[in-house]
């Protein structure tokens, strides 16, 4: 990387063992130029100006790289091939800020997203999302799921169910087949839908 670049996401290439570090790519065709939009109330206090930050990275079955980029009014998911060529871009709605990416063995791409339109001051006011896409970047039926409170890290289990951390002490299991959720606290089942 040139001396002015910094890396915010890394992934180890499954075929070569190389470390892939993602700096700020050339997103000229994707970037939303903000200009006068900083007068919008929901951007009050946001110091990122027109920067779009890479947040999370994962590689799929074909060793393509998926990266989530975030900005309050310009969040998107990008898919690159092994050589760094952009394959597809999945835009998110303004104020839906993509975060964690998990790709399961069934080649589905799970993405957690913060809802910046919801109150950030209390957990009860949060309404974050979980998106699920196929390997082409198409949103799957029934998604996004909502109602998560300050969604955090995510992982999949051996059945390809997604597990996310949310709220103060809640771990939520999202069924890979039907999208139903079960919440756990300290190893106990709390709710199930």
Note the beta-strand portion: 35-45%
Mean pLDDT across the residues is: 76
The order of strands across the largest sheet is 11-12-13-14-15
Distance between the termini: 47 Å
Q: What would you report as the Rg, rounded to the nearest angstrom? A: 17 Å
Largest sheet: 5 strands, antiparallel
Order of helices and strands: EEEEEEEEEEEEEEE
Compute the number of helices: 0
Structural class: mainly beta
The coarse silhouette is globular
In percent, how helical is the residue content? under 10%
Work out the number of β strands. Answer: 15
Low-confidence stretches: 1-8, 22-38
Summarize the structure in words:
With 193 residues, the protein is mostly beta strands. The protein has no helices and 15 strands. The strands form 4 sheets. It has a 5-stranded antiparallel β-sheet with strand order 11-12-13-14-15, with no helix packed on it. A 4-stranded antiparallel β-sheet has the order 3-4-5-6, with no helix packed on it. It is globular, with a radius of gyration of 17 Å. The model is unreliable at 1-8 and 22-38 (pLDDT under 50).
